User: Fold this.
Amino acid sequence: MHPLDNVVWQSLGTRHAGLAESFDQARRFIPEVSAIAAFLEATDRGYDSLAKLVPVGQTVNLALDAPYQQERTGWSLVKGTPMPQMIYERNGEELASPPDNLGILELGAADTEEMVALVDLTKPGPFAKRTRELGTYLGVRCGGKLIAMAGERLKVPGFTEVSAICTHPEHTGRGYGRILTSEIMRRILARGEAPFLHVRKDNVRAIGLYERLGFRCRVVRYHAVLRRVEEDRG
Assistant:
């Protein structure tokens, strides 16, 4: 298995094992950290294992090898979309240094409320109040307000995911996404790791940016948000 195959499962079993909850063939992040989960295989046993970790009414985000189509007892599909997994295989020489006057900040606990609010507004993907514990998060402020950020999420040996790349709608078009993504990539590369990321297939603008930065599509996964529901007992 390649380290990026079933990468959520592998992350929760290796570099992020300390932030995981597990039962049989399922793993999930502690809910305060992330709503992302995985199982060893998308079988009845996998879904049944995951059901032990997710209370009725809660949702989880899965990265599947195929679209979620089979209705399964105890689960309801909220939404699903194709999600390319992109990987960077260069040495970073083309990544420009950020402007000296930009004032990139490393975000911490005091920034959590603003980070969550920015993600809620721009919706780059699931983000919870402790997601920042998964890695380094960088941001840009304007007038004292957080207007752009990017950070690290899933981690497996040799690879770190670039995630939560977002800019406030009133400040787009100024290159913040490219600059922050490049800086996160440089830090990953400096550790001897390779950056990768996930993006919705319909987000053509973002895909174009990532391709210009040197990412290529490795494989297309399928993002599924599932809600745990009461089982019909007849």
User: Anything to note?
Assistant: The mean pLDDT is 95.
